[in-house]
Fold each of these.
Amino acid sequence: MIEIRDLHTYRGLNYVLQGIDLDIPDGQCTVLLGRNGMGKTTLVQTIMGLLRPRGGTVRIDGTDIAGRPPFAIARRGVALVPQGRRLFPSLTVEENLTLGVSRRSRGSRPAGGAGWTSERVYELFPNLGQRRHHRGNQLSGGEQQMLAIGRALLTGPRLLLMDEPSEGLAPVIVERVGQVIADLREQGLAIFLVEQNYGLAIRSADSVSILANGSVVWRGTPGDLDADPAARESHLGV
Amino acid sequence: MTEFIVQTINGFTLAGVIFLVSSGFTLIFGVMRVTSLMHGAVFLLGGYVAYSVIGALHNFFWGLAAGTVAMGALGLLVERGLLPLLRHSEFAELLATLGLVFVIDDVSLAIWGGNPLNITLPGVLNDSTTLPFHGIVYPNERFFILGVSVVVAVALYALLRRTRVGAIIRAGVDDREMVSALGINVRVVFSAVFVLGTALAGFAGVLGVPVVGLAPGNDVTILLLALAVVVIGGLGSYEGALLGSVIIALADVYGTAYFPAVSYSVLFIPLVVVLLVRPQGLLGRRSMA
Ligand SMILES: Nc1ncnc2c1ncn2[C@@H]1O[C@H](COP(=O)(O)OP(=O)(O)O)[C@@H](O)[C@H]1O
Ligand SMILES: [Mg+2]
């Protein structure tokens, strides 16, 4: 689905991504690990078009979209569950959820992510349904995360970018996030999961990459990583 | 007491006019982070355009429509033609919109001269009504201005609260990057808000003539009032603009009526108090990501 080649991104004067090569295949869960400040969020934001790369390519189904505006990338089937969730505090739960659903995109989206409605999200997360007229910022952390996921799903994506969805959540909620990720993958959605929670990452992953100092320093299967304590120790400290 | 009631009604009428200007001003800032310093000049130019159209067609409502549409068109021109050249530089945008103030002022002076002009409202609107209390006689045109402001305020509220476009605008004030990441072309929404905001300023410039007059210098006064309103209410907040307009307008009329020597200071007391106690504005959010 996505091929990233020799991607370079700056944040201000910080040279953060120093030549990233990474594939995110259709229908799989691709996990990115790495310590704080290594550039995981920078990579996610570059894929989504929120940051402009200095060089390199991001191909979606063969078309280079590097440097395109976020809405154009979203319309190609990429959706973002951002770090910190970034819900719209001025909007109700229902408005947050349906903002990305335009008349144009209704029904005309490619299969895979098709068929998501607010009702379906409320079935998946009943708590949200009970609070549909509350403001987005009146929810618990777990509910906010579910809302951020639902909001992304309603744009009808084929690829979901999830940036630390377990951050700040209680273990039982993290468990729930893990289930949701597994279900979505089961339904054919491609997932790019950035995580600090090693357990969640390993359970969800089809393949794992580790980012350190601006480039991918390790890649393999979750099994490989479990069997490689040296790599875990030096790149993750777990 | 009679005096106080009259001043209070005056205050709310002025609040209506100020709200029409500052609601657009605050929305433009909210979604685009552009402080449009030309907003006062647009107000004045809208009035002048209407003055000429009314002179030619002898119809107030054509003048009102012309002033509104012409200023909306000017907004479109600035937003599409000028601002893109300056993207990413707030300072350049400030200077450019300030430069436009001088251009509009000079052109207006050349065309309409330096003397105060007036626009009279038609028919019964030009009469007065005797109120059923204290025998107060009050001009109908001011009731009309107040009524129209309320209608526009309600319509704007419905647009913001009840429509998808309104939800996009509110979300854009919160976090415009995220709006774009949901597949929405925020640039188009920005343009629409800019045009709506300048059209509202033009509309207010015509409607407000019986209250604030039509003369050079009004542009600066109105810009200062709009700035004070959004600082008090909170930048980017519709409700803040509403509340701020009422506070500033009442401070202005009471100050002018009861403390004429220091009326400008009275006007800025609420401003200073809000800045000290709640710098993000009464209804503003602490930080806007
Ligand atoms: N807005 C910013 N301006 C400048 N540097 C930034 C900004 N945001 C993050 N950085 C820097 O970029 C680097 C990568 O950050 P980030 O991508 O958020 O890392 P991660 O998500 O892996 O924790 C960090 O060193 C951070 O200090
Ligand atoms: Mg991060």
Amino acid sequence: MYGGGYIFDKPLQDHKDDDDPVKLAEFEARIDRGEKVEPHDWMPFEYRRQLIRLIEQHAHSEIIGALPEGTWITRAPGFRRKLALAAKVQDEVGHAQLLYNAAETLGKSREEMINDLISGKSKYSNVFNYPAKTWADTAVIAWLIDAGAIVNQVTNSKGSYAPYCRALERICQEESFHLKYGYDAVVHLATGTPAQREVLQDALNRWWPPIMHFFGPPDNASVHGEKLMRWKVKMASNDDMRQQFLNMYVPKIWELELTLPDPNLRKNPETRRWEYTEPDWDEFKRVINGDGPCNKERLAVRRTAEERGKWVREALLRPETQYSVPLS
Amino acid sequence: MTASNEALKSLLYATADDLLILGHRNSEWTGLGPLLEEDIAFSSMAQDQMGQSLALYEILQRDLGERDPDTIAFLRPESEYRCCHFVEYPIGSYAFSLMRHFLFDQASYLRFAALAESSFKPLAFVSRKLLGEIKYHIMHGNTWMAQLSRGGEESHARMQSALNEAFPMALGIFEKLEHEEELVDAGVYAGSAQLRDLWLQHIEPALAHGGLALPELNAQEAGTAFFGGRKGFHSEHLGSLIEEMGAVLRSDPSADW
Ligand SMILES: [Fe+2]
Ligand SMILES: [Fe+2]
Ligand SMILES: [Fe+2]
């Protein structure tokens, strides 16, 4: 899965005018014609830099996102759920792999990206800094966070960088299975015993603010943002994606006779836009900057895994391991 | 003669419980592997193993009158599990988990290859189906074992010490089953000692290829140090895993999840 609310880098002042204006004009004309950019094509410095940032964050989100759900595989109730959850989380790790590969085509190695993740330099989706406390949390995550990811990823798959688009198309197919699985798990809880409904409602109440945060703060039209939109790096405003999500999923949530913890949430019949209480954006900033309930734990787990696996990666790099023939 | 239901159950529970528990252990690598590719590989094996155990619990239900798979897999008391200690141990280091995977899957393949000829038809049928899956596990285990044992001094030393630790534990796979004589006489099962000897023949060339040597065992390690599982006596690690596997189900066994 992936959570949006990308944090784009601030433009680098010293690189602003480095790009050859003729090539830049050609590049922009290609994008306007709807052409896709391949790794060996010329691209503006800033385009490359922001894409690396975007794809890298997405990849980190997949691998960090595997942690809260992963701990529920052993606890999942019964074979059907266990197998489905294990397969889902495995897909998420596979998404990380596809995305790191896509980002590598832009010139940053997987190792560098992972180093930036564990040093805290590079971000990942904020939602994964919240704990999955109960089984119902995992159902809510698999349904609604993956649903948010789909909104985000389908939008991004229409972007201009071909390797990222190709990765996203494959990812979106798998995400739609995750969403079906999540919805099925939610429906079982919603239509189950009073205790099941209760844990589900509680999980939904806790996850609603992070879900509202998911698409990122309202973007005020900066020059910077406009350029990313023109280059088809950023494909929709955060608010537009949030509206799309609300429009698709709030009715489904209400249909299950569940409530959402926002008394102002409603669709305005005249504007046909959803109205809601702005989530606490200060909290969003606090959490993204490292002060959420699980940030430290998530990074510590990732860092430990990297350290403990270092000898394996090193052994694989040695020439004598390169040509060994599998025995069977 | 045909084997009694009691004897068949002993065999099926031992085989299924091994896979169920190791499948859960292998799933614990999700998100923590030394590289993403290995996360994915261990997750595949975990899913296969859980699926294989399910196929055996289904035989227990359908042909031997036991309760439904979710109930017997997750809600039995610890003393009714028949898995060996080897599969119960925590994942430990990647070297240990990889070595366990190599040693266990070799045994698992030979066990199902023998069971594919079993006179108990439902088991023979399922065993033939599972062999194809396990072949991939063997390939994965052999490849990684060879690469890491030949991946330089440090890596080789880690693999050798993982073998030293895992090998005596792995002998617990071949602890005699309850009602084993009856199963052997009825042509249901080849017998644990015979499987062990066959297994030793299979693992030795693969280990030698990686320059790894089987450790010298003291009498206790070579004997029954890691035995007990087939009779319901388990290591200290099983109880908490059973607790965990069934926690949500147990919170309301009548509920539909
Ligand atoms: Fe996801
Ligand atoms: Fe997903
Ligand atoms: Fe994903």
